[in-house]
Design brief:
Blueprint lengths: L2 H14 L4 H8 L3 H9 L9 H8 L3 H6 L15 H38 L9 H31 L5 H29 L3 H34 L1
């Protein structure tokens, strides 16, 4: 502890506050001669008075003892390293390729399956010879699309620890797109394979729509949460 340094800081801060030695002495319940001794470096304040002096002068006790302003605390904000950004971009690029292939396969499957179902909508028995091959092609395309998409998604998640709102939106779009034709096939099959086909297919339709709504709400909340964290 340096009495001279403490005296200088007391003198400097007292003047900044517009106080005289007498006024400061009154606030601290000491004599003005005591304040004068402190400022001249001829004496050091009693340790019990340090909190009151620091509070009156608007400084910290550490600043009062050392006569120096405390070093500003620099908050280090962690940022993504350039290397991390590069790796993230590479992983994202690979996933985009998988997405494009998966979406094309899914759209093709919907086109073949949807057209087939509409063409043979009122056909009895349920399957015609050509329809079997068309629906088989539809199923193969859907399975391939799901394998490509999920493989790309899992690989993306293993290469990066971040998942963006955009990725979740794309995942949602793929799941909805891939579920349309299979749901329509089941909807039609329920008509021919059960006695209460009419009731069952509309019950299935209600469950399908409800599942989509629940899935949409859950994913929307997750996307909103990610956006809020980013902001």
């Amino acid at each position: 502890m340096d009495a001279k340094a403490t005296g200088k800081i007391i003198n400097s801060k007292r003047k900044e506050k517009g106080l005289t030695q007498i006024q400061l002495a009154e606030l601290l319940n000491v004599s003005n001669r005591t304040v004068s001794k402190w400022e001249n470096g001829d004496g050091f304040p009693d340790i019990t008075l340090l909190p009151d002096i620091a509070d009156t002068l608007g400084i910290t006790i550490d600043e009062l003892l050392t006569g120096k302003k405390p070093e500003p605390v620099i908050k280090v904000i962690e940022t993504e390293k350039p290397a991390d950004k590069t790796e993230h971009k590479k992983a994202r690029s690979k996933f985009v390729v998988a997405e494009i292939i998966a979406f094309c396969l899914s759209i093709g499957a919907n086109a073949i399956g949807g057209t087939t179902e509409l063409m043979f909508l009122n056909l009895k028995p349920f399957y015609a010879f050509i329809e079997i091959y068309l629906l088989l092609a539809t199923v193969i395309l859907f399975i391939t699309a799901m394998i490509v998409f999920l493989t790309g998604f899992v690989k993306y998640r293993t290469e990066t620890d971040k998942i963006s709102a955009g990725i979740l939106t794309e995942l949602y779009a793929f799941i909805v797109l891939t579920s349309i034709t299979p749901a329509f096939i089941v909807f039609r099959m329920l008509t021919w394979f059960t006695d209460d086909g009419f009731l069952l297919r509309y019950l299935f339709l209600a469950i399908y729509i409800l599942a989509l709504i629940v899935f949409t709400v859950i994913l929307s909340k997750k996307i909103k949460s990610i956006k809020n964290e980013k902001n």
